[in-house]
Amino acid sequence: MYSILGRRTARGHRSAVRTGLAAAAAAAVLVVAGCSSTGGAPDSNGGGGGGGTVDTPRKVVAMITHEVPGDTFWDLVRKGAEAAARKDNIELRYSSDPEAPNQANLVQSAIDSKVDGIALTLAKPDAMAPAVKKAVAAGIPVVAFNSGYDAWKAQGVQQYFGQDETIAGEAVGERLGREGAKKVLCVIQEQGQVALESRCAGVRQGFSGTTELLNVNSKDMPSVEATLTAKLQQDPSIDHVVTLGAPIAQTAVQSKGNSGSDATIVTFDTNSALVDLIKNGQVKWAVDQQPYLQGYLAVDSLWLFMSNGDTIGGGNAVLTGPAFIDESNIDSIAEYAKNGTR
Q: How far apart are CA 323 and CA 290, in angstroms?
């Protein structure tokens, strides 16, 4: 993949530093993954070493996300989390709700059940803050991933795994400019979700042409298709559509066909179906933040902390993306996508 972490922005220095952090995190994963399928026994000093084993004290980790039912992105996150849990002899309690107050209630339930660690997303950080602070006050280690890049430190969260959504959006905008785009439609599938809105804000900052926002409701995909079809019919000057998730990109392909539009479709995030759409040219490229890796690192980092006091990132976010996937590298990703991990 072509990494865009090192792109030249006003925050280029910070981006370069975090590139090193991401590389260090990747190296840590390789070391851990090199252990046997049973995880390997801890060393004689009681250190973490490999994963847990049947005779290692079993820990309970709650993972709480803002997953929308049926979103294939979150299937990848969950698979990564489950892989780490198996390796580390962790009982993973996965739950999700697209509504922030309900997510906060799930955090409170995890606190009440005295879990050993919590991994969560902060799609709407203000609504989550009181519950997160309660977990921290209860002495439960908390890590965040995927959403909440600008909020995790303020809430006392220990570590963060994901991408800087604004930088990712800026890179998308710059690439669209290089490819000759003039008018871009950026489709937000959940209004008020800070990560999604940051992506489109970044696109607008990085793109020298016209960027228009379109809010749709991902809980009603027929409505998404109809709204997008109508917009493309109404405004034939839209030459590129940027979607913020693979299922929305798939729907955009249908809307393009229905409307007779010539717009090029690009997207954030991937799934196995999107791999085929890139291969056949229906989607030109995608921005990958490695959801499987996010889920894996969130759980594995908690195990490393609980078993050996380790933290990853030196107090900074550990970046799992972004990178571009296009026709030049799609074949190398396709095998992993078929396995359900990309």
A: 9
- In the chain the domains, ranked by start, together with CATH numbers, are 11-163+289-311 (3.40.50.2300), 165-288 (3.40.50.2300)
Taking only the tens place, the pLDDT of each residue in 151-166 is 999 999 999 999 999 9
The closest alpha carbon to 246, from 148, 325, 339, 329, belongs to 325
Q: Are 252 and 228 in contact (CB under 8 A)?
A: yes
Q: Measured between alpha carbons, how far is 264 from 244 in angstroms, rounded to an integer?
A: 14
Distance CA 89, CA 57 (A): 8
The owner of tokens 């739950």 is 95
Query: Which single residue is written with the structure tokens 């390997």?
Result: 40
Q: Is the pLDDT at 81 greater than 50, yes or no?
A: yes
Decide if pLDDT at 251 tops 70. yes
Parallel/antiparallel/unpaired status of strands 159-162 and 183-188: unpaired
Supply the DSSP string of 205-236, one letter for each residue. HH-SSEEEEEE--TT-HHHHHHHHHHHHHH-T
Q: In the prediction, which pLDDT does 40 show?
A: 37
Q: Tell me what pLDDT residue 2 has.
A: 46
- CB–CB of 236/261 below 8 Å? yes
Q: pLDDT tens digits, residue range 227-243?
A: 999 999 999 999 999 99
Burial 306-342 (b: 16+ CB within 10 A, else e): bbeeeebbeeebbbbbbbbbeeebbeebbeebeeebb
Instruction: Using alpha carbons, select from 87, 93, 91 the residue that is nearest to residue 53.
Output: 87
Buried b (16+ CB within 10 A) or exposed e, 18-37: beebbeebeebbeebeeeee
Give residues with Cβ within 8 angstroms of 328, minimum separation 6.
2
- The per-residue DSSP string of 18-87 comes to HHHHHHHHHHHHHHHHTS-TT-----TT----S---TTSPPEEEEEEE-PPTT-HHHHHHHHHHHHHHHH
